[in-house]
Amino acid sequence: MFAGFDTSNYTTSAAVLDNNKIKNYKKVLSVAENQRGLRQSDAVFQHTVNMPKLLSAMAADYDLKKVEAVGVSSRPRNVEGSYMPCFLVGINTARAAAEFCGCRLYETSHQVGHILAALYSADKLDLINSKFIAFHVSGGTTEAVLVNPDKENIINARIIAQSTDLKAGQAIDRTGVLLGMRFPCGAELEKEAKKSDKTFKIHASMNGCDCSFSGIENKVKNMIAGGENRCDIAKFALESVRVSLDSMLKAVIAEYGRLPVVFAGGVSSNKTINKTLSESYGAYFAEPQFSADNAAGTAVFAALKSL
């Protein structure tokens, strides 16, 4: 049995991997109405309040004394200088849990956790032994990374494409907030977009393999000012993100060749984006519970490090 913890900016997460089955325990952080995010100090406070409740739920379901190793995300990415205060809550919780269980503690990055969770969900964990492309698409990150096996870190991810301004999740959430939705807005925006039967001719703003999302927000503001229907605005924003990701992947394949592709991060749970890229490129997607922020990947990391 293995335990994992992750305290990203918008979700307090814990997970247990037992007999190759994962159970997630999550609490989404509260964001005030009409706000587009949280300050780090507010995120740290909410994580501190939430984590004991998740631990209590875990202890009710499992004998935590049987945990063999604990995994935790201690930083956003595995690069020098990558740091966010919110991850301190997860680190401290994981250290205490490892001491309580008398087991090893393994630290990884939030990004590696996302990729491993997606691979687990798609039943493609064997890809850690070969080269593949991973897209990490969320409110804080929109990157394509070239992934290679790594003895110490399980996988090594090198950025090969990224957004140059807004992230995909930011473009979606800012559109939702402008339409009066509660942050985070992805699920509600997708529901609203389904009401639209309008078609759009959208061209991604590309520079090599990199893309730009800032034009989406500007266009959305103009559409709102022009009195266009909410559902059409929602569909435009999501279609713009879909076209941009499609263009990024097409450019990456042209540059690096046909490799297995996996999508991780909350934005990749969007059904339209998922359907298009899986059908066009054979890309692998996680189930929604493993796409959004979660601790499953850190539990998988602990298990892999224990082999």
Defining key terms:
single chain; 307 residues; 10 helices
**Main β-sheet, spatial strand arrangement:** 3-2-1-4-5
Radius of gyration: 19 Å
- Secondary-structure element sequence? EEEHEHEHEEEHHEEHHEHEHH
Task: Please report the total strand number as a whole number.
Answer: 12
Strand content: 15-25%
- Give the rounded overall mean pLDDT: 96
Explain this structure to me?
- The chain has 307 residues and is of the alpha/beta class.
- Helix content is 43%, strand content 23%.
- Strand 4, helix 2 and strand 5 form a beta-alpha-beta unit.
Spell out the blueprint of helices and strands.
Blueprint: E1 2-7, E2 11-18, E3 21-28, H1 40-61, E4 69-75, H2 87-101, E5 104-109, H3 110-121, E6 132-137, E7 142-150, E8 154-162, H4 168-178, H5 186-193, E9 205-207, E10 210-212, H6 214-225, H7 230-256, E11 261-264, H8 271-281, E12 284-285, H9 288-291, H10 296-305
Parallel strand pairs: 1-4, 4-5, 6-11, 11-12
Antiparallel strand pairs: 1-2, 2-3, 6-7, 7-8, 9-10
Helix pairs in contact: 1-2, 3-10, 4-6, 4-7, 5-7, 6-7, 7-8
